[in-house]
Amino acid sequence: MQNAKVLTNLFITKDSFHATLLLSNEQTLDSFYWEGMVCFFVFEDEATCQKIIKNHLEGKLKISSRALEEAQRTIRNILRYR
Description:
By secondary structure, the chain is α+β, with helices and mostly antiparallel strands. It has one domain. It contains three helices and three strands, in the order βαββαα. The chain has helices spanning 16-24, 46-57, 65-80, and strands at residues 11-13, 29-35, 38-43. It has a three-stranded antiparallel beta sheet. A hairpin with a 2-residue loop joins strand 2 (29-35) and strand 3. Helix 1 crosses helix 3. The longest helix is centred in the last third of the chain and has 16 residues, at 65-80. The chain is globular and about 35 Å long. The N and C termini lie far apart (42 Å).
């Protein structure tokens, strides 16, 4: 039997704060791309990403401050070094 990659829907956002939240919650940043001056962040597992954003908006999201800091640094570096 061949190894089959499970296809999941991707989650795309241009909101750098949401990208930081997702990255700090161990979501996989699949890629990013630029359209003009706007950066779009592409994450795997759309359903989980939407759940994380929903929990954030409802004030229910728990995040490690260390993970948040590391994710913020990563997103900032992507935006800085276009």
